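2 proteins. here.
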Amino acid sequence: MTALLLALLALPLLGAAATLVPALGGRRALWLGVAVTGADLAVAVALAAGFDLRHPARMQGVTDVAWIPALNVRFHVGVDGISLPLLVLTALLTFLCALYSLKRLPAGGSERGWTGLLLLLATGMLATFAVLDLLLFFVAFEIVLVPMYFLIARWGGENRGPAAFRFILYTLLGSAVMLLGLLLLGLKAGTFDMSALAARHGAGLSRETQILVVLAIGLGLAVKAPMWPFHSWLPDAHTAAPTAGSVLLAGVLLKMGTYGFVRVLLPSTPEGMHVLAPYLAAFAVVGILYGSLACLALVRPGVKGDLKRLIAYSSVGHMGFVLLGIATLTPVGVNGALFANIGHGLITGLLFFLVGAVKDRYGTADLDSLAGAGGDTGAALYGRAPRLGGLLAFGAVASLGLPGLAGFWGELLAMLGAFQPAAGLSRPTYLVLMALAGLGTLLTAAYLLSVVRRVCMGDPARPTPAVTATPAVADVHGYEAAAWTPLVALTVVAGFWPALLLGLTTPAVKALLGGS
C-alpha cells in the first residue's frame, strides 16, 4: 500500500518532468500523457483493491518522514475511506482527459506544454487528497493554480485571458488567508500533523482560536469550493476553459475545497465549526438557490445563454448541497457531502465532455444559436445525433438527482442531515434551510429539463441558426465513447449501489467527528 500510494503521487510528477525532453514533442507528448495517466489509474485501482475494507477509518499506506525539521514539518501521506474515492476519481478523470486530448487538443500551444501542465495538475490534485501535514496540504493545494491558469490562458476560448486572471487572483487571495489560518492552527496546537490534530478533536485550542482558524481556513476553502458569494470566478473560468480543463476544474478542483472542510476543520476545530456551522449552512442554501435561478435565467430564449456557463452555475448549486451536508455536523450529512462530491465529479465531468462535443459540432455552445432565439425550435440532437442526444439527456437527469443515479444520494443525505442536525444547532433554522434546499432541487429539474428540450428536441429537418447548410451532425465518435463510457457506468453503479461509497466513508466520518 505504501509503495502504491507513493507511486500514485510520483508518476505524474515524473511524467511532467519528462515532457521537458525535446525528443518527446508532438504526438509523442500526447501519448506520453495517456501512458502516464493510464499507469496512474492502474495504480489507483490497485490501491483501492488492496485497501483494508475492514478498517476504512484507519490511515493506510502511510509514509511519515522529516521534510522541514526546523519547523517540525513532515512528509506525511496516507489514505483512508474519505480520501480513497477522491484519489480514484482524480486518476480516472485525468486519464480520460489525456485520452480525449489525443483527438481534441485545442489550438493555442504545444503538445509538450499541454501534457506537462496536465500532469503537473494531476500531481497537485492527487497530493491534496493524500497529504497529512498542514503545510504540505497548502503546498499541494497551491500546485494546481499555475497549470490550470495556463491551460485556460493558452488553450481556452474567448475571453480566456481575463478569465484565467480572475481564477488565479481569487484563489491566491483566498489561499493567502488560508495559510494564515493553517499557521495559526499548527502553532497553537504545537503540531502540523493532521492525524494528530484530528485525534485531539480541538483539545488545547481555545474557543476563540478555533473560530479564527475556521474563519481563515474556511475562507480559502470557500473560494475553491466555490461557495456563494466567492464563486464569481467560476462561470468565466469554465466558459473560457478548454473541455479537459473544465472537466478537471469541476470534477476535481472544486472538491479540494470541500475536502479541506472535512479533513482539516471538522476534526481539528469542532467548537469553532459548531459556532459557524449555521452561517455555512445559510451560505450553502443561498448558493443552491442562486445557482438554480442563474441557470433558469440562462436557459430562457433570447438571452444568449451559454451551455458551459449554465453548467458552471449549476455547480455552484450542487456544491451548495455538499457544504450543507458538512454544516449539519452529523455523520449522515457529512457522508452525503462526500457522496455528492463523487457524484458531482462523475456527472459534471460527463456534462462538460458532452457540451464540448456539441460545441465542436455546431461551433457554438450558445443556446439561442443552437435552438433558435424564438424558442419554438430545438437543436434536434435526438434526430441529428441520437446517441449524443441520449447521453446529454442522461447527464441532465443524473444531475437533477434522479433516483437510481449518482446525483440522488448525496443531496438526499445532505437534506436528511439538515432535518436532524448535530446537538446544539437550531433545528428550526435547519428545517427552513432544508425546505429551501428542496426548492432548489425543483428549480434544478426545471432548468435541466429546459436544456434537454431546447438542445435535444426539435425537427431535425428544420434548420436552426447553428445548422443552416445541412441538418447532418456527427454522432458519438469512438474516442468520445472511450472517454465517456466509464463516467456513465460509474454514475449508474453509484446510484444503484450507494453502499460501495458509504461503506468506505461512514466509519471514517464517525472517527473524524469524535465517534458520534
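next one coming up
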Amino acid sequence: MHERSRLLLTVLALLLILWLVLGFWPLSATNRWVLSLLAVFTAGVVLWRQWHHLQSRQDALSHYSADILPPEDFQGSVLLVAGNSSAWFERTQVFRETQSGWYLRVDTPEQLPALAEQLATMRPALRPQVAVMLGLLPEQHTSEEVFLQWLRTWQRAVAQCRPWLSGLPPVVVTVMVSGPTLPLHSENEQSIRWFTLTPDLPGIRVRLPGQGTLPVSDWLRESDTASRFMHLTETLWLDALQAWYSRTTGTLISARQGDIPALHPAAVGFCLTPVAAQDGNLWQQHIVALTALPPRTEEHPAALPLPDLLMTVLSRRRGLSGHHRFWRQAGLMAGIFLLLAMLASFMNNQRLVRSTGDHLALYHRLDGHPPAPKAQAQQRLRADSRLLDDWLRRGTPLRYGLGLYQGLRLTPPVEAALSDWAPPPPPRPVIQKVVQGPKTVRLDSLSLFDSGKAALKPGSTKVLVSALVGIKAKPGWLIVVSGHTDNTGNPALNQVLSRERAESVRNWMRDTGDVPESCFAVQGYGESRPVATNDTAEGRALNRRVEISLVPQADACRIPGVIPAPSPDDGASITEMEK
C-alpha cells in the first residue's frame, strides 16, 4: 500500500507540475514544452524505479504472512521479540496477543529488519508503537564470549530497523532466571513479580499489578512476616542478577562500536521464574563465583510470562495510516501547487499592468504631430481594450485569476485614453486625367488578301471600315501600318509580301480617309514577329496579320512629304483580332 501510494503521488505531482507550467507560469511556448517534456521524462524515470522497487519488495515480503500482524487500529504496543525468543512462545506459535501488547516472534537477527519493514509497509499507522523486546536467558548460554558475540549481532539487527521505523525503535530488555525457590505449578502470571530498572527512576523497583512501582526497600518493609524471608531471598538473587547484567549485557549494548549504535533500553525487566536451563550455563557460573553453590536446573517447557507490566514505559502515540499519510502528502502537494499558482498569477497580472501602463504612457507622451506614431500607439491601446473586454465577457483566464486579477482597474484609463484623441482624416487623393490613345487594330490577312497576294480582295472594304472607327489622324500621332506573315515559304519573299500588304492598307486609308501620306509609316516584318506558334494551323492564321496603331510623335502629320522615322519603342499595343 505504501509503494502504491508513492506511485499515485508521483502521478499527482506530474499532473500538478504540467498544469502549473502550461497554465500558469509566464513562459514562452518553447520553454513550456521543454519544461513539460523534462517533467514527463523525470516522472517516467521515477515511476519506473518505484514500480520495480514495488515488485522487489513484494517478492521480499511474500515470505511473511500478513495474518501475524496486528490490525492497524491496535491500541497496544507491538513488540518484536528478539534474543531467546522461542522461550516466550509455543513450538508453532508466531505471535501472542495480550491486553497491553502484540508480541511477534523473531527467531534470527536477519528476520528482525525484514519484519520491521513488513510492519512499516503494511501497517504504517503502527510504526510509533513498535518496540524491540530483547529477551535474555542466561541459563540457555554456556560461553560468555559466544553470548556477547550473539548479543552484538542482535544489536546490529536492531540498528538495521532504523529506515523502516523512523529511527532506532525503543528497546525493552527482559532478563529471566530461575529463582531461589521454585513456585508451585501455577500458570497465573499475576503472581509473577517483575523488577525494573528505568532511566528516569533510581535503583531497582518492583512492579506490582495495579499499584505501579515501589523501591525494593519499601517493598521489603511493607512485606508481612510470612513472606518477608522469601522477599529477602529474591532480593539477594536480584542483586546478583543485576550485577551479571551490568557486567555483560549493559556494558556491551550501551557502547557504540563502528556502525553499530549504542542501545539505551527504555526499561530493563528482571524476573525470577522457572526457565529451561543447560548445565554449566552463564547463570550457574555467576552464582558459583559468588556462593560456590550452583542453582538447580530443570526443564520447563511452558512459554515464559510476557512483560506486560513493562509496557507502561513505551509510547502510546498513534501514527498515521497509509490513507492518512497519502492524503496528507497529497494535501501538501496541493498547497505547494496553490502557492506557486498564486505566485504565477501575481506575476502575470504585474506583466499585464506593466504592459498596459507602458502603452498608456507612450500614448499620452505623443502629441499627435505627426499623427502616425500616436495612431499606432492608439492601436495598441485598442488591442488592450479588446482583450480586457473579451475577458470581462467570457471570464478571466485562470492564470490571471485566483483573486489577483487587475484588469478591472485598467479598463477605465484605457477607455478614457481612446476617446480623447482621433487621428486627422487622410488627404483626398488627386485624380489626374490620363489621356489614352486610340486602340491598335489587328487585321487578319486572309480576310483582306488572297494567299500570296498583296492586292485587297473585293469585299474587304467592310472589314477596313470597321477597323478604322478608332483610327483617326491627329497632329502629333503617327499611324503605323505593319505587315506580318507565318513561316510558310521563303523568308525573303514573306518579307516583301508583308510590306506590300501593309502598303495596300495604307494606300486604302490614305485615299479613303483623305489622310496625308506623311501621317503614315509602313513596315514589313515578314515572319520575324509571330504572336503564336507556327506549328499549328491556328497559330499560323494568327501570325498572318496587318496591325494598325498610333504612336506619339511630335512632328507627325505636319510636314507633307516627310515620313518620320518609325519608333518601335513608343506607344503601347492593345490588340483586337478579327477572324
